[in-house]
């Protein structure tokens, strides 16, 4: 840690507050300790307040530069402190960090409210906004002005003094509730484990999975095989375990997390969150929280969202019913004289898939060794966009499993830092995500480049094999890498409009777009080789991947629609919800349920996307963006999947632009027209593709 001399004494400097003397000014994780965060937040908020006071007390007439741009630049130290803290909460948390978060959350909410509810400041913002037609602003400047004005209005700036006080309390409550919800899910997931000492009980599990379970037990100081609720254990277990009773036990443990009993129950948090959001929406003049949120989305209103969900439901449900009937028939033919239940679905559908296409995860995994997959995914970006990835061993890391890369553009210039973090830990929340440690912005002619991270929970290496990932994990890598490209290619003036700072139902376009290459033979041929023999993945295996691409597409779509309908059910309520959380959930999802309903199970108490993430009234975004990505990828299939002109257009019109213009304007600039669901229906085989 650096130090300064004060009156003959050595005083340590908080590394979060000092200039970073690291490559590209990356976060000095090797210097930062938990105890640095809280005082750094306090100092950063203090400096931010001083910057706000300077704007408010400026005697000159409010202008775009001295008010809107000044606001945009204010709080840079707070961003610098907050980015590593909030990233660590997800990627490498501990009890102390979570306690700090509980302490910081209400202070940060109050700090934000003090800015957006500052009447003198809003008067200046409003003054600039009301003269916007005379200011001759660029499209990007217009977007910043609109976003700034909307931020104040949507945070209560137009409320009366009494209502502002109510808003402060509600927003503080909401920040604490969503924080607690997410922490509860992580703790409850980590709490459950089951030690198996009889190997025969685990019959059907592949060797790789057995090795992983043995490692789980060894880490816990036990002999045997340890089951847990992490996706790397749960998913393969439900696919391959022959023991139906054990499948049911694991399924029930997974789907009743945070539901009843114990200290991490989230049922009441669900009620409190949706009711607090409703109160905020009502206070700001909206009937429901969805009405409040969707104004700032491509969908614009709940009618558009429901229209999309309903159209997809109508197209996919008949297909899903046929798929379920086929799995049921297969199970019956193979001695299962019972109705296929949710804990049976993965097991029998995987066996049917294997029989139908002679394809399963274990056949593919030897060709998807993680190091080779990294080369392939990075190589795809090189082939499309000319960028290269060079590991930088001098960049400090927060965990030994993390890698950091210098990303170099096609002209040899530094583009970005990319961190990769692939494997599960108790200190890491479930799922996969992309985030930033530093955004991108322009300071005059200087382009300040971003620091991007992608975090996953992929299958670990074992004592006898390297990390061999499943095909689903491979497509997840492509998905998060698409988000990373959106961040790394950012080229905007203002950080708040840069990179992935776009409408929520647009942000998934680049990520879902990248998944399309995952089934392309020409791409797979470049890196998918057997980890032992070096043999290239056989052409017939790639064809099987293509042939099976739409296997159970109906059920997969209905599953996503069920989450979308559930999200909308919670966020379109117009009166406070006091009923049974799980019964309301069952009602919302009823039409989409093909499998028998398990009434003891529940989704809402662990639905982190909408209750502790940013997808409230926005889960539909995945399907919305899937329509966009299928439509957009049709340009590549027409011009060539590695066509550099098409890639350049996607980069220049979508990836680089961030939120600098309305997303439909950007999309039409790339595509030449608005999207339709036709390309998605054709891709999924729901309707015939006349071009084939």
Spans where pLDDT lies below 50 across 5 or more residues: 1-10
Structural class: alpha+beta
Outline type: globular
- Strand line-up in the sheet with most strands: 5-6-7-11-8
The assigned CATH architecture of the domain at 365-504 and 520-536 is: Orthogonal Bundle
Distance between the termini: 63 Å
Q: Assess the beta-strand content as a share of residues.
A: 5-15%
Number of E strands: 11
Indicate the mean pLDDT.
Answer: 95
Report the radius of gyration as a whole number of Å.
Answer: 26 Å
Give the number of helices.
27
Oligomer: single chain
CATH class descriptor name of the domain at 365-504 and 520-536: Mainly Alpha
Give a quick account of the main beta sheet: strands, pairing sense, barrel closure: 5 strands, mixed
CATH topology of the domain at 365-504 and 520-536: Neurolysin, domain 3
Q: How much helical structure, as a percent, in the residues?
A: 40-55%
């Amino acid at each position: 840690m650096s130090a300064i001399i004060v009156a003959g004494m050595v005083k340590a400097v908080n590394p979060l507050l000092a200039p970073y003397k690291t490559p590209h000014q990356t976060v000095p994780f090797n210097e930062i300790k938990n105890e640095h965060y809280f005082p750094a937040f306090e100092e950063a908020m203090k400096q931010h307040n001083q910057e706000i006071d300077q704007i408010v007390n400026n005697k000159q007439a409010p202008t775009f530069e001295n008010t809107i741009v000044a606001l945009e630049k204010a709080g840079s130290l707070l961003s610098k402190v907050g980015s590593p803290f909030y990233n660590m909460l997800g990627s490498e948390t501990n009890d102390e960090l979570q306690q700090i978060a509980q302490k910081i959350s209400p202070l940060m909410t109050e700090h934000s409210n003090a800015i957006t509810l500052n009447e003198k400041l809003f008067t200046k913002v409003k003054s600039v906004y009301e003269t916007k037609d005379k200011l001759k602003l660029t499209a990007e400047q217009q977007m910043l002005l609109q976003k700034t004005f909307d931020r104040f209005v949507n945070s209560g700036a137009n409320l009366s003094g009494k209502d502002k006080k109510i808003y402060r309390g509600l927003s503080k409550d909401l920040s604490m509730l969503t924080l607690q919800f997410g922490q509860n899910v992580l703790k409850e997931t980590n709490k459950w484990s089951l030690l198996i000492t009889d190997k025969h009980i685990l019959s059907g599990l592949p060797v790789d999975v057995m090795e992983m379970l043995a490692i789980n037990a060894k880490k816990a100081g036990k002999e045997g095989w340890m089951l847990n609720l992490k996706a790397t254990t749960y998913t393969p277990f439900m696919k391959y375990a022959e023991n139906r009773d054990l499948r049911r036990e694991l399924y029930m443990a997974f789907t009743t997390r945070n539901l009843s009993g114990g200290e991490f129950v989230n049922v009441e948090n669900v009620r409190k969150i949706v009711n607090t959001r409703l109160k905020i929406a009502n206070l700001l003049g909206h009937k429901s929280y969805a009405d409040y949120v969707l104004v700032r989305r491509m969908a614009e209103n709940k009618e558009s969202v429901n229209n999309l969900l309903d159209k997809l439901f109508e197209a996919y449900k008949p297909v899903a019913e046929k798929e379920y009937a086929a799995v049921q028939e297969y199970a019956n033919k193979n001695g299962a004289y019972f109705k296929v239940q949710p804990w049976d679905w993965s097991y029998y559908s995987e066996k049917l898939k294997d029989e139908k296409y002679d394809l399963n995860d274990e056949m593919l995994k030897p060709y998807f060794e993680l190091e080779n997959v990294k080369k392939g995914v990075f190589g795809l970006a090189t082939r499309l966009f000319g960028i290269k990835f060079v590991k930088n061993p001098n960049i400090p890391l927060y965990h030994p499993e993390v890698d950091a890369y210098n990303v170099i553009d096609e002209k040899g210039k530094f583009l970005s830092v990319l961190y990769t973090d692939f494997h599960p830990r108790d200190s890491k929340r479930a799922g996969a995500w992309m985030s930033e440690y530093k955004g991108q912005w322009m300071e005059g002619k200087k382009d300040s480049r971003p620091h991007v991270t992608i975090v996953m929970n992929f299958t670990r290496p074992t004592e006898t094999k390297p990390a061999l990932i499943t095909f689903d994990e491979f497509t997840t890598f492509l998905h998060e890498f698409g988000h990373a490209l959106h961040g790394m290619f950012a080229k905007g003036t203002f950080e708040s409009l840069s990179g992935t700072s776009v409408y929520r139902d647009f942000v998934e376009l680049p990520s879902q777009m990248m998944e399309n290459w995952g089934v392309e033979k020409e791409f797979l041929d470049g890196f998918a080789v057997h980890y032992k023999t070096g043999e290239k993945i056989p052409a017939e295996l790639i064809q099987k991947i293509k042939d099976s691409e739409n296997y159970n597409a109906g059920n997969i779509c209905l599953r996503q629609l069920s989450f979308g309908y559930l999200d909308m059910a919670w966020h379109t309520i117009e009166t406070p919800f006091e009923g049974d959380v799980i019964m309301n959930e069952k009602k919302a999802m009823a039409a989409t349920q093909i499998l028998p309903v398990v009434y003891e199970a529940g989704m809402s108490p662990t639905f982190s996307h909408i209750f502790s993430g940013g997808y409230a009234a926005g889960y539909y975004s995945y399907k919305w963006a899937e329509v966009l990505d299928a439509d957009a990828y049709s340009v590549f299939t027409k011009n060539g999947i590695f066509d550099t002109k098409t890639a350049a257009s996607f980069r220049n019109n979508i990836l680089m632009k961030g939120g600098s213009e309305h997303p439909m304007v950007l999309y039409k600039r790339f595509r030449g027209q608005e999207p339709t669901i036709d390309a998605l229906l054709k891709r999924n085989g729901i309707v015939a593709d006349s071009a084939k």
